[in-house]
Amino acid sequence: MDIIAKKSLGQNFLKDESVLNHIIESANLSKDDVVLEIGPGQGALTEKLADVCKKVIAIELDERLVEVLHTKFVGNNPPAGGVEIIAGDILKINLPELIIEHGLDKTGYKVVANLPYYITSPIVRLLLETKYPPTEMVVMVQKEVAERIVAKPGAMSILAVSVQYYAKPEFLFTVFKQSFEPMPKVDSAIIRITQNMEHGTITKEETKKFFRIVRAGFSAKRKTLINNLSNGLQLEKKVVEEKLTSLGFSPNTRAQELGVEDWRKLIINLFK
Ligand code: SAM
């Protein structure tokens, strides 16, 4: 069946065999792995995943594609690895329940996916914050988003801080727009996001506080961190300046210059 891609669902299907193989190599899978795939589309990546792992749990929103996937994988000729297709919206599904019900290891499973771009950030956030997060994600995102996620101090954003707070992101390789059908406007990239295992020791309250302060720091892009923090948190400018400079930052520092560790130290300093 010929499927007309729905732009509104971020449907750009990967057509390049060598890119598919490169993703599979990067995911480093074994026959013990049960993998979660988000947005399997017409199943190009799903098929390759099924060849190298124990089982693929694939969640697809578009019912037309769910039908195609059922015919392909659940029909008479299932691939060696086994594929389960779940019709649903990744952002609405009860992920912890799905993980338990479908045999994903709640202490460590992988996500491999070519993500729908219109909801990349909410999906990444969901996977980092969910009760049973994956140990590793190898995902395709827009190249510009990939660069923002792996940014270093000097070019940080709330997105970069949010991912790097929970995990270590790495830029793996660029995928040119010509590799997709229909061809998107921009290039993509594969990134690996590895969960920071010590994260389990941080309480929800600490995390909430951390992001309340980070959001205040980024609130007005052109303003200095001192101005943003003193306005947003009702702190005296002099106090913020003293704490910031004691960490080696100048009074003109802007939020994008701080890495996650800098934020941690600053927050401890500000509230001790
Ligand atoms: N994996 C396929 C490939 O590489 O060719 C398709 C990737 S395409 C970029 C994104 C896929 O995500 C589409 O199949 C789209 O229908 C699906 N999708 C979009 N929004 C979704 C959602 N909220 N939950 C689950 N799947 C979604």
Q: Could you characterize the architecture of this molecule?
A:
By secondary structure, the chain is α/β, with parallel strands linked by helices. The protein folds into two domains: 3-198, Vaccinia Virus protein VP39 (Rossmann fold, 3-Layer(aba) Sandwich); 204-270, Orthogonal Bundle (Helicase, Ruva Protein, domain 3). Helix content is 40%, strand content 18%. The protein has eleven helices and nine strands. It has helices spanning 17-27, 44-52, 63-74, 95-101, 120-129, 143-149, 158-166, 204-217, 225-233, 237-246, 260-270, and strands at residues 13-14, 34-38, 55-60, 83-87, 110-114, 136-142, 167-175, 180-181, 188-195. Strands 4-3-2-5-6-9-7 form a seven-stranded mixed β-sheet. Strand 2 (34-38), helix 2 (44-52) and strand 3 form a beta-alpha-beta unit. Helix 9 (225-233) packs across helix 10 (237-246). The N and C termini lie far apart (63 Å). Bound molecules: S-adenosylmethionine. Residues 9-14, 38-41, 44-45, 59-62, 65, 89-91, 114, 116, 119 line the site of S-adenosylmethionine.
